[in-house]
Amino acid sequence: MFQQLKNIDTAFKHIKTFSLVLIVACTAICGFTVYKSYEFVRNAQQHIYILASGKALEAFSADRTANIPVEARDHIRMFHQYFFTLDPDDKVIQSNITRALYLADNSAERAYSNLKEQGYYSDLISANISQQVSIDSVQVDISQYPYAFHCYGKEKLIRSTSIVTRSLITEGYLRSVQRSDNNPHGFLIEKWNILENRDLKTENR
User: Fold this and answer.
1) What pLDDT does residue 5 have?
2) How many C-beta neighbours within 10 Å does residue 78 have?
């Protein structure tokens, strides 16, 4: 009889141990399943689908801080492209300058007003000169806000008889603002200044 009770006690301990192991295993599996489900949902929310020409294109969302250097450099490039890319047409000049001024504060407007008063734009129109800019590099310091930058590029003034190449170096600061259709990157250039804009060479056409 004592042997039977001993066997029952041992069997009960085995069942108890097995039950505890089973409960721990089920809890672990449930916890892992919930964690993976949240991870899947989080990853799914970072996927963005854009409809373009009837096709769904997949994109990914990201924290803006990860893209600040890229967006800042592109904002600066866009501004310089609009401000310095000119054709001998008053409407084209006005359109490009207007786009540029949405991306900067009144320091850019002052530079535009000075050039206009000096007759720079009217000279381009009367002499049928096209002006193009190519940006070589943009350096942005994001360690301190507002972000200081230097922009290095070249200008080409295309005349009917010659092409003049100029160096272009500018500096300024970037401040964060609300994004809009006119300012998609959400930056504003402040204290913009042209450090260098001198002739490098002249080529005959």
Assistant:
1) 44
2) 19
